[in-house]
């Protein structure tokens, strides 16, 4: 009789506690599952998109350029931080020409060197990826703060100058870029970008007299 009472009490307690606990926690697993599904889909789509792009070009000077720019930006930040102390010590000398010389040297290495280095390296293409579905190229360069900058362009957006400028091979959407043919994994992509696969225009060799006779 005692065992039967104990069993009834236990079943009553379990029946009283279990729905309450389930009622409080039944919503949370659903919310967690929804968030986990969204995050997994987001990263899966991102990874799938990156895998669809094919890297066809890599600039071999990319590590060296990054290292030099990091050193230049770090030295400029250190120069700006130490400039008040250097100027305070320089004013104690009392020589105006020496003070001007010190300020010129500090200003050159603090401001001019990083800007000059960025002007030279901002055209250097570190990577080029190709999307075969949209026939789009994605060129990557480095900005002043050593962050990657990507430019999407197609073959129609490329203009090759007759006389290449300094560190300039082509213009993509008006932006000058520097690339080298030997670093392409497939030379056909370089030929398409530079327009070497297009037919030659033999009309460029016509004489001026022939044009005048046609106009008359």
Automatic annotation (TrEMBL):
Write out the entry's keywords from A to Z.
Membrane, Transmembrane, Transmembrane helix
Q: Which GO terms describe its biological process?
A: mitochondrial proton-transporting ATP synthase complex assembly
**Cited InterPro entries:** TMEM70, TMEM70/TMEM186/TMEM223
Give me the Gene Ontology terms describing cellular component. Answer: mitochondrial membrane
> Which parts pass through the membrane?
98-120
Record bears the keyword Transmembrane: yes
Instruction: Note the Pfam families from the entry.
Output: TMEM70
Q: Which family does it belong to?
A: Belongs to the TMEM70 family.
What protein am I looking at? Transmembrane protein 70
Which species is this record about? Euphydryas editha
């Amino acid at each position: 009789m005692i065992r039967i009472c104990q069993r009834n009490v236990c079943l009553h307690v379990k029946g009283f506690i279990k729905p309450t606990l389930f009622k409080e926690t039944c919503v949370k697993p659903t919310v967690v599952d929804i968030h986990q599904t969204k995050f997994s889909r987001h990263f899966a789509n991102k990874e799938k998109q990156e895998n669809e792009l094919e890297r066809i070009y890599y600039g071999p000077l990319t590590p060296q350029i990054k290292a030099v720019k990091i050193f230049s930006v770090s030295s400029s930040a250190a120069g700006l931080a130490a400039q008040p102390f250097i100027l305070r010590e320089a004013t104690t000398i009392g020589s105006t020409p020496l003070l001007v010389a010190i300020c010129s040297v500090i200003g050159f290495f603090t401001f001019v060197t990083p800007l000059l280095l960025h002007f030279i390296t901002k055209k250097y293409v570190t990577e080029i990826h190709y999307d075969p579905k949209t026939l789009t190229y994605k060129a990557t360069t480095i900005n002043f703060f050593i962050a990657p900058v990507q430019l999407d362009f197609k073959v129609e957006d490329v203009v090759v100058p007759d006389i290449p400028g300094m560190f300039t091979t082509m213009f993509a959407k008006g932006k000058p870029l520097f690339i080298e043919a030997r670093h392409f994994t497939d030379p056909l992509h370089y030929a398409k970008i530079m327009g070497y696969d297009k037919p030659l225009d033999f009309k460029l060799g016509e004489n001026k007299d022939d044009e005048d006779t046609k106009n008359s």
